[in-house]
Amino acid sequence: MVRRDAWMVVALLAFAAGVIALLEHARERRHTIYHGRSLAEWLVAIGDARAGVRDTAAYALTRLVPAFPAALPAVMRAEADLLGDADEEVQAEATAALIAMGPGSDSTVPIMIGVLARDPNASARVHAAQVLGALGQLSRAAVPTIIGALADSNASVRLVAVNALGRIGLPADQLRDVARASTDGVAAVRAAAIEALIALHAPAETLRAIGERAGHDPDAVVRVEAAYALASGGSPACVVPRLVVALDDVDPLVRAAAATVLGRLGPEASSATVALERAATDSDREVRAVATQSLRAVRRTP
After folding, report:
1. What values do phi and psi take at 34, rounded to 5?
2. Which class is domain 235-302?
3. Is residue 234 left, alpha or beta, with left meaning phi > 0 and alpha meaning psi from -120 to 50?
4. Residue boundaries of the structural domains of the chain
């Protein structure tokens, strides 16, 4: 009886060891196989004729590459090839993959520089600039190429490039390139350039000059950014009169922005009290709400 019980224990232990081994094998397989395919097979699937397969491949590679760090450069190049894919969902998945894996590879930035500088596909250039911007200061080496992209023939490339520069950062002597973009022929690029200059802490005189010029822009979004540029552009004595003018803009978005900025200036914008009182009765509900709130801030005792 004792002997039989001992054999039972041994059998149970052997069974448990087998189960553990199987679970360990399954765990390892999860890291090296995704939906029945290996990393090498998913790399091949990047060139599949079906967009759904390419989309899945872009994601699958991000799941599998941690188990094969030596394959990371090849995976990054494969993902880069999808940035100009005919399918927008594939482009987006590849972009997300490059952003997720990018910090772990020294090849990311050089590969993206190559795409942004030389790829004939505008979508690929757009997404390459997006990846570089998302990587922030890790993309410092790409700054000259991104500045060059501000002259790209495609407006979307220029837009994403100027946004990227705002995220990466620039020394003062290179801000002139972003300032030049604030006169771009496309309004969205002009607005993004002003926003980037604010984020980059451009000199007050630069922001004030651009804010004054952009305050007359035909596009309302650019005029909104002009209001924020003025707020960052020096002494309230200089900028408050221009913000008061913006309170009478034909577009409620601009009027609301001007009221917001005046509120942020607080008591230093007290000379705008009458204009804000008038704005508090504006025909637009948002303008009225912002102006009323800003009045409280302007009237606050310093």
Report:
1. -130, 120
2. mainly alpha
3. left
4. 235-302
Q: Do 252 and 286 meet the contact criterion of CB atoms below 8 Å apart?
A: yes
pLDDT tens-place string over residues 174-197: 899 999 999 999 999 999 999 999
Helix (H, G, I), strand (E, B) or coil at 50: coil
The closest alpha carbon to 86, from 35, 134, 50, 45, belongs to 50
Buried b (16+ CB within 10 A) or exposed e, 65-86: beebeebbebbbebbbbbbbbe
Whether the Cβ atoms of residue 58 and residue 94 lie closer than 8 Å to each other: yes
Name the amino acid, one letter, at 282.
D
Write b or e for each residue in 12-47: b if 16 or more Cβ atoms lie within 10 A of its Cβ, otherwise e. eeeeeeeeeeeeeeeeeeeeebbeebebeebbebbe
**Distance, C-alpha 39 to centroid of its chain:** 29
Angstrom CA distances, 1 to 4, 7, 9, 40, 47, stand at 5, 10, 12, 55, 65
Taking the model in full, what pTM does it have?
A: 0.84
Q: How many residues make up the chain in this entry?
A: 302
* DSSP code string of 139-173: GGGGHHHHHHHTT-SSHHHHHHHHHHHHHH---GG
φ and ψ at residue 276, rounded to 5 degrees: -70, -35
d(CA 132, CA 115): 11
The mean pLDDT value for 59-72 works out to: 92
